[in-house]
Amino acid sequence: MGYLLALTVFLAPTYVIKFEVFGLPANLLMLWVFVFWVIFASNLSYKKRWADFFYTSFSINRTLLVAILAFFFAGTFSLFVYGFSTAKLGQFLVLFLQPISLFIIGRFIFLQNPKAKSLLLTTCYLLLALMGVYATLQYFTLIGLPEAYWGNNIEPKRALSIFAHPNFYSLFITPLLAFLLPDAIASLKSKILNLKLLAWIIGAAGLFFSLSRAGWLGLLAAVIAYMIVAADKKMRLAFFALMVVGIIFVFSITNLRYRIILPLLGEKSAISRTSLWQTGFKGIQESPIPGMGLVGFSQNWSRLNTDPNIDSHNYPHNIFLNFWVETGLLGLICFIIISAMIIYRGLRHYVIPEAASAKRGGYPESKTWIPNQTQDNIIRLGISLFFIALITQGLIDNPYFKNDLALIFWIILSLAI
For residue 146, how many other CB atoms are within 10 A of its CB? Predict the structure, then answer.
């Protein structure tokens, strides 16, 4: 089953392959999850493990379990806010039912077979490397890159890998880069060719060439968090030196320099974000408790929006506004609780106070952080960084309300609990 779960992660980008089934919209990823359900259920029946599965499903920290159940309830309730539709049903299926079911299944698989965790990490590295290679190739050769992203007076040259937009690519890989950061650094101790670190660097290069400022900001937040809680003095000095070199490099290249400073000068994308947030707040003011329901923001766009210079959008492009508008106040609160608990648990389990001075019977003049280098704690820290990157990037983008992003979110979460 671990291989099938890893394959599900690998197939996450196939949501772009769309078609109809019995007149209803569908995509390849959605159908694969249905197939996975059937295979998993058949395996449980064959091995007579249904009792174990149900027991495991509810053997979670009580607060976290209540938050997850309430989050699912908020998604279910949002199906019926301002009326039911097949469009809402489709969103509920790919944003709540399928991802949360995979969280439950994934948790069961990891508890029964801890080695499946390593397989999932390897799959994530493979995805980063393959996408990063293609994105880098696109940037320097224009192969497979739509003409709109070759560089013009509207958009600079930007890589998008296998996705339809550079921001979609960035939304997919930024949290994964943050998640794998502790494992990639821990692998530096390996005496053989470090393929993990190489894959991570290739993925980071792809993110760089996407020119996604939200992605850059999200990964930077995760790296800084890692440096604060897990790095030693040498690594922090190296990071500081790298930051100085990076800043000099970025500001010495015209396209990159203006990519950073234009939002401060009233660039269209920055203005559009402000307009989107205002539209989102307007929707919340109309319906503060239940929100506007799934697809409610997009369906009410023409009525809520007052800026004629901005194109239609499906979400307000702020993770907190997104959840509030689409799933109501309950969905937002549950997301915050889940995120806060996972971030806290990851940092708590990974760092310990300075131990050397304590052994000598003295007290350290200042506390430093010493990594507790077990595989589980490395993964927990990685998941904390995953959430930090996702939330930071989500301040100006939409890192959950897409098939692939919701699926990755819940599968990664299943590693933490």
Answer: 12
